[in-house]
Specification:
Helices cover 45% and strands 16% of the residues. The chain is α/β, with parallel strands linked by helices. The structure holds glutamic acid (GLU).
Length: 420
């Protein structure tokens, strides 16, 4: 029987390879292999039709060695403990590679927001927050948006936590509405970071941005902002997809028109988008298109042993978390495809989350120019370090990123030593 895909196995495999290169013993990395804390909660909600439905939620803290746990909350029907565990660990390494003072955590609720009313989503967010309240807080664990959640949900989380504490606690969550201490630039931050990273890698490979083709899988916050910013940089975005499928125009899509149509109505799906020269493709077909840059910006396990051989892109910029399995990594390395790993490429979101938290705990506010400049500085410098180390070790960029991140995590753990 085929073994079920478990993204946490992917994490452990990469960590082990990085540890071998760094010369670490099993004992050095033993504690990194286990999440520090896992909480599974039941979330009873009174639905709009008067019935009671109990949703399942998780909050998992992989590491707090370098600082409070940090990471998003996902509302999606496929959420499960193994996925949240992997996402939490990726946050640990992501925060370490960009050197912000956080560990890693992640949360999720098994639900399908597209089938829920706003009232039901708010009720889930509030009861979930109450259930995980003992674990979270500005010094402990700071949630943020992820797939299926947004600024509005973060606002309800902030309010619920503040109600329980009896006073306003801005710094408990990031990605909030601006009125509640959200950071200007946070909404675009992950996509902006992906754009900076794409620019950096194309630069190293001597490929001009102008006219280079890109296909983007996913039109959520990350995919749509990436599409807009790459288009503004002169990249020819030829394909974009959402849950319903993809659209393709080899001459380049009119990205502003597509994004305006998508945002005109929450129910608009790309399968219904019509324009001259645009054909409809599946999400699988999008990944195999003849483009220079492929940006998976949806879920895990999209590029795997089943399709890696068929990938035609020269460069993959991982805007999603865990889109490429370790089997696919090996196949793509053999084919000479350059992959900029998730923990580096999509770190822009958590970097600006860090800026938001810093502003919240100091009660100050920065303007958008400052946020974007500081974001660029961190993304460019992290990219340069990863690129250099990968070249020095003659290793793929993913390994370069993990070598830097794992060393920072292990160094922090060893400086703290094991308590008691
Ligand atoms: N969910 C985002 C990620 O996977 C952002 C996390 C954060 O801002 O804490 O990186």
């Amino acid at each position: 029987m085929e073994q079920k895909y478990n993204p946490y196995d992917n994490v452990l495999k990469v960590v082990k390879s990085a540890a071998d290169i760094l010369g670490y013993s099993d004992s050095d990395i033993e504690a990194v292999k286990y999440p520090e804390r896992e909480l599974k909660v039941s979330i009873p909600v009174r639905m709009d039709d008067g019935t009671t439905h109990v949703f399942t939620g998780y909050r998992i803290q992989h590491s707090t060695s370098r600082g409070p746990a940090k990471g998003g909350i996902r509302f999606h029907p496929d959420v499960n403990a193994d996925e949240v565990r992997a996402l939490a660990a990726w946050m640990t390494f992501k925060c370490a590679v960009v050197n912000i003072p956080y560990g890693g955590g992640k949360g999720g609720v098994v639900c399908d927001p597209s089938k829920l009313s706003e009232n039901e989503i708010r009720a889930i967010a509030r009861r979930y927050t109450a259930a995980i309240a003992p674990l979270i807080g500005p010094d402990q664990d700071i949630p943020a948006p992820d797939v299926g959640t947004n600024a509005a949900v973060m606002g309800w989380i902030m309010d619920t936590y503040s109600m329980l504490k009896g006073h306003c606690v801005h710094g408990v969550v990031t990605g909030k509405p601006l009125e509640l201490g959200g950071a200007v630039g946070r909404n675009d931050a992950t996509g902006r970071g992906v754009m900076f990273t794409t620019r950096n890698i194309l630069d190293k490979l001597d490929i001009p941005m102008e006219g280079t083709t890109a296909a983007i899988q996913g039109a959520g916050n990350v995919g749509s902002v990436t599409a807009r910013l790459l288009h503004e940089e002169g990249v020819k975005v030829t394909a974009l997809s959402d849950v319903s499928g993809g659209i393709y125009n080899p001459e380049g899509l009119d990205i502003p028109a597509v994004l305006a149509w998508l945002s005109a109505d929450r129910k608009h799906l790309l399968k219904d988008y019509q324009a001259e020269g645009v054909s409809h493709i599946s999400n699988e077909e999008l990944l195999e298109l003849p483009v220079t840059v492929l940006v998976p910006a949806a879920l895990e396990n999209q590029i795997n042993a089943g399709n890696a051989e068929k990938i035609q892109a020269k460069v993959i910029v991982e805007a999603a978390n865990g889109p490429t399995t370790s089997e696919a990594d090996e196949i793509l390395a053999r084919k000479g495809v350059v992959i900029v790993p998730d923990i580096l490429a999509n770190a822009g979101g958590v970097v600006v989350s860090y800026f938001e938290w810093v502003q919240n705990i100091q009660s100050v506010s920065w303007n958008e120019e400052t946020v974007n400049e500081k974001l660029k500085e961190i993304m460019d410098s992290a990219f340069a370090s990863v690129w250099e180390l990968a070249r020095e070790k003659d290793a793929p960029l993913r390994m370069g990123a993990y070598l830097i991140a794992l060393k920072r995590v292990v160094d922090a753990k060893s400086a703290r030593a094991i308590w008691p």
